[in-house]
């Protein structure tokens, strides 16, 4: 069972590339972030044409997440991250697909830091940890995945100095991420690539893609029940190099049936 995450950076702008990737790689579950579409404008019918059923949580011009499942309807469990009734940003969507709980997230960037955006990021991560504790208590195969906007280690970035002041690499961001792992969740990509050097994002600026100046911020965290089924994980890097591509590449994990 292949489960993937893909920050698409505008579902309408990248639709041809997205459909291309889905048809060529055929993940069972595809979780999208930054769809940048209101609910009524999401192109769900385009995915239906190739056999995918979708649920989505949209927002005009910003954010937005969606879960696509091949050949079956995702069963929606949670829309929006619990813990703050005043938070209206579309950043979290949770569903059951094929016996696996999938939690799709687009974690706040946090820049500039310090400041209110960074405070929001850390508060969001605290709420995420609480929700993940609830999920872990159910003892079901669970994958929490998406754009975490956290570079966990120095080995996860092409140049530490280049990102040293960014919210993605601050000690507070990393500490909040490591607390999730400390609670018993497994970082699939790191587990299979302990030396690092695996990028999932390349900026559009400064020739980052042709120079391979990237970093890893898209993660797949597995509950113990899912980690026991871990077979493979990787990055579909070539899709970043295609015409009108997202600045992220798809990232995936394979679980044994």
Automatic annotation (TrEMBL):
This is Exodeoxyribonuclease III. The record marks 218 as: Important for catalytic activity. The active site is at residues 106, 147, 248. SUPFAM superfamilies: DNase I-like (SSF56219). Pfam families: Exo_endo_phos. It is an enzyme of class 3 (hydrolase). Its EC number is 3.1.11.2. The gene is xthA_1. The record marks 248 as: Interaction with DNA substrate. Keywords: Hydrolase, Magnesium, Manganese, Metal-binding. Belongs to the DNA repair enzymes AP/ExoA family. The keyword Iron-sulfur does not apply. Its cofactor is Mg(2+); Mn(2+). The keyword GTP-binding does not apply. Probably binds two magnesium or manganese ions per subunit. Residues 4-248 form the Endonuclease/exonuclease/phosphatase domain. Coiled coil: none annotated. One of its GO terms (molecular function) is metal ion binding. Mg(2+) binds at residues 7, 34, 147, 149, 247-248. One of its GO terms (biological process) is DNA repair. The record marks 149 as: Transition state stabilizer.
